[in-house]
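On clarity, I found the account of how folds are encoded harder to follow than it need be. For illustration, here is how one protein appears when written out as sequence plus structure tokens.
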Amino acid sequence: MLETLKPWFEVAKPHEDICKGRLSEAVFAANIWAVAQKTAPDIYLDPEAFFSKTYITGGLKNVMKRVGASLSGEAEAGDRIFSLQTSFGGGKTHTLVALWHIAKRADIIRKSADCAAVREVMGDSFPSKVKGVAVFTNQTCDATQGRQTPEGVRTRTLWGELALQLGGKELYKKIQPNDEARTAPQGIFVEILKQASPCLILLDEIADYCVVAAGEEVGTGTLADQTISFVQQLTEAAQQVPGVAIVATLPASALEVSSSEKGQDILVRLEKRFGRMGADIKPVADEEIYQVVRRRLFEELGDPAEHKRAAEAYVRLYDQHRNEVPAEASKAAYRERIIAAYPFHPTLIDALYLRWGSHGDFQRTRGVLRLLASVVGDLWKRRKNATQTQPLIQPCHVSWTIDAMSASLTRLWGAPYEAVIAQDVIGEKANASLLDEEKGGDYPTERITQGIASAILLGSFGGQGEKSGYTTKDLKLAVSRPGLNWSYTDGALLTFEERSFYLHPAAAGSLGKRYWFGTKPTLAKLIVQYRQQFAANDFDVEIVEGLQEQVTGISTAPATWRVFVNPEANLPEQKSLALLIMPPTCSYSENGKGPSLIASPAEKRLLEISQKCGSKERIYKNTLLFLLPSPRGLTRLRNAFREVAVLETIKRDYSSQLDEEQKSELKGKFDAAKKSVGESLCAAYTQMAKVEGQSVEVTTLPVTRPNLLEHLREAWKHIVEEEEWVLRKVGTVTLQKVGVLVTEGSMRVRDAIECFLRYTDKPMIASKDAVLTGLSQACREKLIGIGRGLDATKLQKKSCGEEVMLDPNEDGLWIIPAFTPESATPVTGTPPTTTPTTTTGKPGQSPTQTGPGSVPTGKTAKRITISGSVPAESWSDVFRCFVNPGVRLNPKKLKLGIDFELVFDDGQKVKLDEPSIKAMKEAARQLGLEMEVEE
């Protein structure tokens, strides 16, 4: 059973101002000059309130003890000048405020319970009496106009301010000429310090003051030059006077002062003055930030046992998945870090303090406090309606709708991140929110995808290249929590990567992938945008073109049909089987009884094509088969064509703007989309249809194939073998039903074939041979007879009970009633012709011929030449007996000569422009024959 952990808000309690949502951000911006002027917030003016919310860091302990010793006269000269140099918000000014209280409010500190930690640190070094405290910041004295003081003096320089604050008008008079002339005193300040000792001098943001002072000319130089010169005079004088302590703050880099060369020069010169005699102290060490944050933001931290339970649960979770988290996360030391950071998860504080803190404009400790206060206040306000589990406050719990968070993000990293938040991270239409709603279950209540997005955005900064962003293993620390399905993160991250607009992934080796948000749209963003552009396009034209392209040159074997795509209403007569692949507008719908055509233009169009050939009645109605799409398959097919169009357009419009990785990704997606078109094309066209009378019959193909060639072969197999719509051989039973096995009179063989091609109440035939084969069998079985002759009443030859060769192009073929053959006596009317008989050989062998002109068995023929003249009424015998068998022998060469002569009576008037003669001339020209006309 999973251990139930209390949410942090049931264990710890933030300070009242945070709970009530009235915390002013000014409380995190310490201002030593405002403290000296008694205009700062109460938390800075009241030593008890100040120290109750101040965690005494190692750096603060160090500077407090050493300053205390200096003011007590115990420190050596070199230990009485201190330089605090950290980035903005690093705790420098907070340290100055602490020293100001020690020097000015010692009476309260010695008695207050809230200041016990201060007394413990100071010990015997607590200064008993301090004559004066002087404060100078970039707000103290305007470099151009100076400051009108309550004492009635207008100070104009750093040295004038220090003298006035340490000893009033009396000491100021000693330095007044230098102050009014704005020239640094030389050797005079030693006397001032001797009279003011013991005293504390606090200099804050002196570099900023010097940058402005550089614009004020003094003699051949500037006020900045005079000020920097005075700093050296001041530090040298302090060394000579016991009981004097100087603490100055300097920025970590010139970027915090000015990006100009002037700012860089000023900082370097000040560093040399203070660094030469001062002791550089870091107020807040990295590992102490946890305690600083907790002390400043929380009134009560609750039962330490609950802190330990939470830490152990998290570390146990990480140990169970040790290969999926950073190596240090499953170790005991990480448990201690969690305890130290409670109720925060270390990753949240580290992201702000280390990652965001690397930005030159981020006030490190101050900024972390300000942002975390806003996060805590937001979560506390929403705690009663919270659906996310919150044993600790993690990056996944950060809401980017908080003004402080979103404002800091855009100020530090750019306004375009507003679009990133809106479209990917949070809000009803953000991709992360939409994905959670789509997945349902725990996803929307635990805000799984939104939490991942929030964490990635928080970790997207603080370095260049591979240092930016969170790895997959980092994300597990930022979002996973005890009691929540571990695999949620992987599933949500995979989907979010595909759907987000601004999320950028990169390989990170054993750490998985590295994710970060950028303001440059990802390929996914471009795809979504272009999908919207193509949303209204049905791609019907492209589908038809795609079908035509695939059909062109395609082999139809073993099918005997010809294939047409999107046939027009005036489709020519088809005397043999034809497959008509219909356009997307002819789709079918499914009802409770199975597939049927939509009662719409689809069925109407099929019936029109079947019955009409343009404006004329179609004769050959039973040769048309139809291949139709399904609505569902059509939707997928249209989407596939849409995706190809989208990717082609992106390649055209953005190819020059994509990096190599994006180009590779685009190519992969395009190849996959093209493949999907082929597969979707077959999956869409799954319905075969034919017309029977005035209705349409539809059948569903049981399987689909990956390409159109195989798909059509599957369709052929289905209608021939399973549905038996098309017959490759017409059996005698079917011939009997159709009525071509005559018992009296006669029927032309060609007419028998025609009835299968014309009338939709008959089965379809794969070819004319299907009928001829059946008739030949019926003749062999003595069900009918076969006669040859131009007139059924004057047959040249009759056959019954024997094998006959039938040619579909032979006009003089007749189906006659069965009869009993007599002796081989020729039929009267025409002189007997020598016709070879066929003897069926063994299976697999070609039939052999016997009779006049036969070739003895065992010998082979190299050449066969047949010549002579035949009467017009026997022309069909030439094809039946010579041309067709000759083709079946598959000779190396078959040459068919022609000697065609027409002779007219003198009384006939056949004009040269007779259409028949003109047609002969054109045919001769096309066939390469010579044609002579004698006039």
